[in-house]
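hey can u run this one w/ geranylgeranyl diphosphate bound, need the structure tokens asap thx
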Amino acid sequence: MNQSKTMYAAIIQAKKENRKLLAVLIDPEKIKIAHIPAFFKKIHESIITHVFVGGSTDEGNQLETVVKTIKQHTKLPVLIFPGSHEQITEAADGILFLSLLSGRNPTYLIEQQVQSVAKLINSTLEIIPTGYILIDGGVETAVQRVSKTQPISQEAETEILHTALAGQFSGKKLIYLEAGSGAKKMVKPEIIKKVSSQLQIPLIVGGGIKSKTQLNAAFNAGADLVVIGTAFEENEGFLEELKR
Ligand SMILES: CC(C)=CCC/C(C)=C/CC/C(C)=C/CC/C(C)=C/COP(=O)(O)OP(=O)(O)O
Ligand SMILES: O=P(O)(O)OC[C@@H](O)CO
Ligand SMILES: [Mg+2]
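ok here u go:
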């Protein structure tokens, strides 16, 4: 049930006009279904433009129920941010078709993607090829544990840049710099700046962003879309600070 395959075009358009985008990340394992209506009331009063749904794991197989409920309460685009090929539902509008480019684990470079095709082959989801780059956020994160890969050090700026450009040259439509959910340190603005200034495709940045100052630092450094999950889970007051 997509919005006629226009979500990527809208991201490109926003980048062109320097309109910054903000996604709330909803973890299907953590959100309470009954809380979705009230949560989305606040989301609609905020500067949030996108809804991402996914988790490094989805033990209770909650994703589809969560997405269906969300779709009843919002017109914002809903994109799956999958931790595995099992996290796919037609109830969403699209899917970030991730490949974990920072790691060297074939399971997350290509096997998960092959496994997902049975569900995607007749799908109407907008599929957006995304190069996903895990960067050290100062704590061992869920993505690191699940994918059994190491993040790239924040000191290795050239390796980060070259990984992002290798993604672009391979045909990825988005690059996602990820410090990991609940990271202690967000991706450094200097890294965001270095990558965004060389990259032609839109840049997503997420992990450990907990304040307006950090959000603006990411935007000013060149992030086109920022993702925030944990900070809203822990403190909805922060969401209320981001009024339109
Ligand atoms: C293309 C398809 C169908 C799947 C791709 C599968 C790949 C390559 C995933 C990349 C590695 C991975 C495990 C990503 C997870 C991304 C994600 C949803 C992170 C959010 O993590 P949380 O579940 O919020 O972590 P916490 O539980 O620590 O908060
Ligand atoms: O939960 P936080 O730390 O906001 O991270 C968001 C997202 O980038 C995690 O995959
Ligand atoms: Mg999380």
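The two ends are 27 Å apart (CA to CA). anyway lmk if its weird
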